[in-house]
Amino acid sequence: MNESLRTALRKLRLSGLVETLEVRLVEAAGHNLSHAEFLELVLQDELLIRAQRQIQRRVKTAAFRELKLLGDFNWSFNPSIQKKQLLDLAACHFIREARDVLLMGPPGVGKSFLVQALGYQAIKQGYVVLYRSIFDLVRDFLHEEALGGEDKVLARYLKPDLLIVDDMGMKQLPKRSGEYLFEIIMRRYETRSTVMTSNRPLEDWGKLIGDVPSATAILDRFPHHAEIITITGKSYRLKDRAGGPINETRPTTPSTPDESTAQPPQSSDSNEAKPPIPPAGSDHGKPAGKPRRPADKSTDGPCPS
Predict the structure, then answer these.
(1) How many angstroms separate the CA atoms of 92 and 231, rounded?
(2) Has residue 82 got a pLDDT over 80?
(3) Which end of the chain is more exposed for a tag (fewer CB within 10 A), N or C?
(4) If you ran DSSP here, which 8-state letter would residue 34 be given?
């Protein structure tokens, strides 16, 4: 490929075609491809590279905490997770129908993993996604409020086809958090899809938000068209930290302590430390009688405890 052709392709913004054209020219010569067949191949290359770059840009814009794939999820760890239900969501019909999703359950059961994996699936299907924790959301509004740019940050949360709000319920939120969240939920209601995760029941949201009226208004709208998925079970993070699944069946008797740290048992008479043997001539072991004066410590042995 000569330099003038390369320059022309770049001016036409066909940089993907530039990357594969040399290979396609060799392939066309070796397989006697027609002009139409050759043109179809190079155009497919360009479209494929454009699609890959668009996914990369949208993943960056989504601001995932980590890029997660549904294929990497350990479905067998917590059987309460319905694999079919999550795979159905991955088809993104709920986005086309502007429905919402709420994942509820204790920390560590995979809620954040799953919602980020669903977000990536949505991106691959051409949707615009934004992932934010509830703390990021509140921080964004507080910062822009100080600068007088609330409308700008609100537009950022209203634009995506899918908004993911993670970590609801981790701790109590600052003042006015309920107003910000209610504004987003209200404006996206029945027009865009929102996915949220929470480790606290819905009845606790008023206390977490610190604004019972806002929480009531949110819960009046968000669950209306939402698919609520409750996950129970063990924490995957703690399993990795402990080297084995949490809450697994273990022996009820205490394990043998390490010799370096073992302490003598206190409750078993058979293992109790025996008192020292008194010296000959002492009256140890005689029947109890009239109390006697303490023996001289310099000549008598230790008194058993």
Answers:
(1) 20
(2) yes
(3) C
(4) -
Instruction: Tell the CATH topology of 70-242.
Output: Rossmann fold (3.40.50)
Location of each CATH 3.40.50.300 domain in the chain: 70-242
User: Is 287 exposed, middle or buried, given 0-12, 13-18 or 19+ CB atoms closer than 10 A?
Assistant: exposed
Predicted pLDDT at 171:
74
User: Which residues are paired to 129 by β-bridges?
Assistant: 162
Residue 303 and residue 117: Cα distance in Å, rounded?
A: 72
The pTM for the full model equals 0.71
- Cα 76 to its chain centre, rounded Å, is 17
Q: What is the pLDDT of residues 107-122, one digit of tens each?
A: 889 999 999 999 999 9
pLDDT in the model for residue 243: 52
More confident site: 149 or 19: 19
DSSP per position, 147-216: HT-HHHHHHHHHS-SEEEEEEETSSPPPTTHHHHHHHHHHHHTTTSEEEEEESS-GGGHHHHHT-HHHHH
Distance between CA 278 and CA 281 in Å, rounded? 9
Query: Do residues 227 and 89 lie in contact, with contact meaning Cβ atoms separated by under 8 Å?
Result: yes
For 131-142, the pLDDT digits (tens) are: 999 999 989 888
Q: Residue 79's Cα: distance from chain center in Å? A: 17
> What span, in angstroms and rounded, lies between the C-alpha atoms of 7 and 14?
10
